[in-house]
From TrEMBL:
InterPro entries: Flavin_Rdtase-like_dom (IPR002563), NADH-dep_flavin_reductase (IPR050268), Split_barrel_FMN-bd (IPR012349). Transmembrane segments: none annotated. Its EC number is 1.14.13.-. Belongs to the non-flavoprotein flavin reductase family. This is Flavin reductase family protein. Keywords: Monooxygenase, Oxidoreductase.
Amino acid sequence: MSAEHTVLDPRTMRDVLGNFCTGVTVVTGHDGREPLGFACQSFASVSLDPPLVSFCPARTSRTWPKIREIGTLAINVLAHHQRDTCMAFAVSGGDKFTGVDWTRGDNGAPAIAGALARIEATVEAEHDAGDHTIVVARVTGLTALHDDGPLLFYRGGFGRYAGETLLDPRTATDVNPVR
């Protein structure tokens, strides 16, 4: 049995997949000389046992190979007011930490001030995936920092969670909205 592959226009794929709203993270590391980081919206929880997460840096990233070499990293979940922080880390080259308030986390990776949460991890595995790499990382530390709303990426733009009523998946009843 052979599979046929349809050639899809990248712009159409971006437009269609842009209908899936994602949170925004900044993946960071520290090589002992300088902080490193890049913006990443392709982040997900993979497994609770063992605790694994994944994210997908572009194969063209110059920062990811440096963080990979370190082996330890932090995934900073950005709050809705951190659009400028996201944009600083979305560019290639330069000092992305200029004007960004941060400290070193428990594993040494930069912890960005104002982030909603921080996931500290070690690189577990990598898989080639077209123009990106799928990274699986083992969680070594978790910190929930704020109750503020997340920075969201949708259809090529940024927004925030509006506080709609959520359903509790255990009971299918309304729960307090996230603010």
